# Entry
Amino acid sequence: MSWTFLFRRLLLAVPTLFGVAVVVFVLLRVVPGDPIAMLIGPGATDADIAELRRLYGLDESIAVQFLYYLRDLAAGDFGTSISMRQDVMELVLGRLPVTIELCLVAMAMAIALGGTMALAGAYWRGRAGEATVDGAAGFILAIPDFLWALLFILFVVVFALDGLPISGRIGHDVGFRGATGFLLIESLARLRFDAFGSVLLHTVLPAAALALPLAAIVARVLKTSINEAMTQDYILMARVKGFSRARIVCREALRNALVPTVTLTGVQFTFLVGGTVLVEKIFSYPGIGNMAIDAVINRDLPLIQGLVLTFAVLFIAINLLVDMSYALLNPRMRHG
Amino acid sequence: MTGAPPRDRPILSVRDLHLAIAGRGRHTPILRGASLDIAPSEVHGLVGESGAGKTMIGKAVLGIQPSPARISGGSVLFEGRDVTHLSERERRALMGRGMGLIPQDPMTSLNPAHRIGAQIADVLRLHLGMDRPAAGARALELLNEVHVRAPERVLRQYPHEISGGMRQRVLIAIAFACRPRLIVADEPTTALDVTVQRQVLALIKRMQAQEGASILFVTHDLGVVAKICDRVTVLHGGRVLETGETRRIVEAPEHDYTRALIAATPRHDRPGDLLRPVPEALTARLNAEALAYDAAHGSHG
Amino acid sequence: MAEAAVSGARRPRATGATTRRLLTNRRVVLGGAVLLFFALAAIFAPLLAPRDPVEQDLLLQYVPPVWSDEAEAGYLFGTDNLGRDILSRLIYGARIALFVAVAAAAAAGLLGTVLGLIAGYFGGWIDITISRLVEIWMAFPAVLLSIVLVAVMGTGLHSVVIAIAAIDWTRFCRVVRAETMAQKQQDYVASAVTIGLGRARILWREILPNVVPLLIVLFTLEMGIAVIVEAILSYVNLSLASDFPTWGGMISDGRKYVNQAPWLMILPILCVIALVLALNALGDGLKDALDPAMRR
# Structure
């Protein structure tokens, strides 16, 4: 892949990022009129309010506030959380690995499940197998991730599956404190398999809830792309070469179906990340999604702002990665 | 080994083949009892305009259901075995060492996701049981044989990195890789420009002579047939109108349609000649004959 | 005259064909029936609900549903942690769900359609500006954005509706913009321009009617999304005070007491799923039935 391509994509993300910053500013400072109303508890005095206003630079004009805001953002300074009394950047970075690991597990599950469904559907094309895959994908897709999360919890409770935890990220009895937030990777690297197993077990259900809708979309798009590839001349060639149908679907058609699939499903990865907000809350999973809801409930303006911006940056980064991945998958673009 | 059939016995025998597109109460015949025989080491031209059903015969010979049509009668005997009723497993076993294909469009017939080397080596590994290094070495040899320039580099390249003529050479190498006894060449030069066309024809002829394979050469171009084929079958509306030695067909055609086809073919020895399309009256007469055939034989299926 | 008679005769027949296509489409009929069921429940809630949905009865907490051995007579689906009748809360919950669905889809549809028509028809810098705006909008997680919006505006039904519209107008905008651009290439718009119709008139009279089938489909699908978002917002207690019978709020209560009374959660979840499935089926069915050209 060429560096100019990468550079151009990075450059294109800049105006989007700026737009995102503007929207967050407008949303949180201009729309509600007086953001102090969000900050103060009952019984605050006028002096308290004035103090707060000065503290947050709210006594300046909107334009000056905006410049301060941009300056702080550029310096990576998101301010101090009101409810946690800690630097927002530190708080967010502390929780970010949790959500990243959750999303990676979910993506792996989605690709594995969606890929299997797509291959099965393409293999049994025009027969009961394909109809089953289509029906399953349609049903999965109709139910959003947070309802799947709740259904899983119900399932665990009703059938008393005590082995599957429905809240938290690691068992209390495991006694593993990572130096980083990447508990899965770190426990594996330190050969603490008990900790790894515990984190994985805690991650299975929230990840599955996040993964299901994406899996259904991957199944649909990939199956359609494989079926499309199966009509190409090189597939006839492969049949004449004497390859089995399984091999033709997996080796000849799949590779060529990946590029359109990644292009079409790339956006869906961002939906998966967005889904963590609720799914983490439902499973009391300590990531930035859970933190975001708490921040909203606590009316913690700096933290809300930091988290919304973090999610936006994540979304833009994912889109960038998607663009890069299909450049890597497509041999035509590799040398271009 | 099944043992090669005696030299006088045809390697391929298409017998009274009927094929039709059926669906929603409609029954559209494509092949109306077509028959032809190919002897071992013979290059047999199958000539006709588009829609004559010649590509359908090619697919049926390879044992592939020529979707959306279905075979509704007759047989295709390859070395005495009917390939129209093979199971998928039996058909696959027949490919490679039994039959090969040189496809029409070299631009779309190589898999864009795999390197050239891998696409030659995979047949060798499947049918000849070669390991990876042996198959790679043999692939290089084959590329040399089909006169691909810089074969070591081409092995590692992707299809989009080489020209159409080179791709067709690669496909010829694949077709001959497992030394098949019959090759179906489906308009192998139509998509190429004239100079490349001549080279590719010469290459097919040379490889055929070297390997002793039979070829079913499907084409609409009698000029190409005259250059490469031992015998010719002329097809129209799914019926065989005439069959015989190439020389005899070209010099003394018996059927009006063959004569018309010859008149419609550019000739290098007489470049000044005016080309005449097949007369509409003749086409209309042939179509009427085809419909009369359908009426006389009833609808299959 | 003759022409007018012909077109006059043709129109009702075309409508009849569309109606027939709609009524023979399984998804339209099935989705429509379920939607009608919930709509009737919502409209006649005061007549249908056996009890006051907010009336608490602390002596009758956690009464299990009728299929359990410990069920109480008169409480079909049991009671919740505060002894409120679950069936009545579900029926009144349908009211809130459907009100939000219709209002939010209408608001999002109006905003998105207007912007999409403008962007698609005028093109140029107007199109670039609007498309850029859509792109920036899509860079936010929808769920988080809606939660923040409601937090900023304060809880309440109107906030929920505005939040959904403010986020999901992009869905309408993108589709309508693309469709308008496609329609603009068609002959009838060119002929409208040549006979000197004003731009606003062309948009209103010529282009809009051709996007209507698409809008109906999008509207139906958006209702499904709105039902989900409302459930999400009431799940995190941002929709209405928890006293109000919202499905999301019931799910939220159910999650808290899932170990004592799993049925608290099952029924509202099933209601959300049934309504959303019905709206999706209806939308997809309409897509097939309304306009064969849309299946391209």
Observations:
- Residues 1-6 of chain B have pLDDT under 50 and may be disordered.
- The domain at 38-67+85-98+181-301 of chain B is CATH 3.40.50.300 (Rossmann fold).
- The first strand of chain B starts at residue 12 and ends at 23.
- The beta strands of chain B are 12-23, 26-38, 43-47, 70-78, 81-82, 99-102, 182-186, 214-219, 231-236, 239-245.
